[in-house]
Amino acid sequence: MKFIGFVIVCLTGGLLLYGTVDLPDWGDPASPASTHLSDYYIEHIVEQTQVPNLVTAVLADYRGYDTMFETAVVFCAGLACFLLLRDFRPKKDRYFRHVPTGVMLHFKNPDTRLVAGNEFEHMDKDWVPSDMIIKTVCRILIPFIQIYALYVVAHGDFSPGGGFQGGVIFGSSLILMAISYNLKTLVKRVTEKFLSIFAALGVLIYVGLGFLAMIMGGHFLDYGMLAPLLPSDPGHIRALGMLGVEIGVGIAVMAVMVIIYMNIVSEGRHDEGL
Amino acid sequence: MIHVFINIAAIFFLVTGLVFFLGGAVGIIRMPDFYSRMHPAGKLDTLGIFAMVTGLVIYNLHHFSLETLLLSIKMSLIVFFVFLASPTATHSIVDAGMRAGLRPWTKKKKKE
């Protein structure tokens, strides 16, 4: 099985390398990017899209297909991590701690149940007491990080930023919660089901906006056709379409970041780990 | 006249920040072990960032308007969050070192 995987990886890598033969050289003065493409973007972006940030306009409008499949790649990465690592088998050894006294119980039989009140907590084998300084500071910082992430997503078409960056910042705020408390606290608040739905929803928002433009009578991902749906300046509609797409990207990236972290750090069990 | 004072204050804070950063860099190289290296890395960097950004905030208020004031407030927010995050990060790294069983450096060398 490993050998087949190795052959597939080599074949794919070889194909990709073969594809690069057709690409223009570094700094080739005759390549399209150096002759007319950059000039076209710089001269026409503001009048065509009314987006002041050229990078976002190229990324989400002129190269919309590319970014759409990039989002799909991110989603596939999360899916592959889930399929390869997730482990649903119950664990054999379980540990419980009596909170008032600190006495530990070790259960070797997986069928045994602990019939007791709240004074016992389930814990990991390599449990470390969570530090009060770190917990408190992270509790203060996490909401600000999340607001900043939303700011980065919303300002994607005016200033540096966008869906990928904002999604990564939002996901890292959730990962910070898992690091400062423990993984169980995060899983309790942000369940696996929620994350999986949001990872798919992000891609769906992107593709859905593309199809909505088709239904309104334009080409796929032609945001200009969405103008009748929104009561705003019709010239500004492309910026709004890009914002919608960036929100989709942000949601997908956020969910996939947390899925990958959860699966790797707990070896797919989602019950212990950092 | 006020511009001269603003410039003097900005230069003062920037130079102070540079001195702290220099001290931090020298300390990280010169200190003998992990824990004592965390000391300049955590403390001097934080204070250096405070002094540097304060200097930039003052310099930014040259042309006083709502826009520059807003930018200055945003820059002070950076200082606020660095002041929260940097000592906590240092604390957690040192904590991890203690849990992993790394011994602090002592001047007496053990005979091997």
Can you tell me about this structure?
The complex is a heterodimer of chains A (274) and B (112). Chain A is mainly alpha-helical and 274 residues long. Chain A folds into two domains: 54-89 and 131-265, no CATH class; 93-127, no CATH class. In chain A, 61% of the residues lie in helices and 5% in strands. Chain A has helices spanning 2-19, 32-49, 54-62, 64-85, 132-154, 163-180, 183-189, 192-215, 237-265; strands spanning 94-98, 104-107, 120-123. Chain A has a three-stranded antiparallel beta sheet with strand order 2-1-3, with no helix packed on it. In chain A, a hairpin with a 5-residue loop joins strand 1 and strand 2. In chain A, helix 3 (54-62) packs across helix 4, helix 6 packs across helix 7 (183-189) and helix 8 (192-215) packs antiparallel against helix 9 (237-265). Chain A starts with a helix and ends in a 9-residue tail after the last helix. By secondary structure, chain B is an all-alpha fold. Chain B has one domain. In chain B, helix 1 (2-30) runs antiparallel to helix 2 (34-60) and helix 2 runs antiparallel to helix 3. Chain B is elongated. Chain B starts with a helix and ends in a 12-residue tail after the last helix. The model of chain B has no long low-confidence stretch (mean pLDDT 89). Chains A and B meet through helix 5 of A and helix 3 of B.
Order of helices and strands of chain A: HHHHEEEHHHHH
Any idea what the shape of chain B is? Answer: elongated
The average pLDDT of chain B is 89
Relative strand content of chain B = under 5%
- Biggest β-sheet description of chain B: none
Helix content of chain A: 55-70%
**Spatial extent as radius of gyration of chain B:** 19 Å
Q: Roughly how many Å is the radius of gyration of chain A?
A: 24 Å
β-strand amount of chain A: under 5%
Q: Please, how many domains of chain A?
A: 2
Structural class of chain A: mainly alpha
Structural class of chain B: mainly alpha
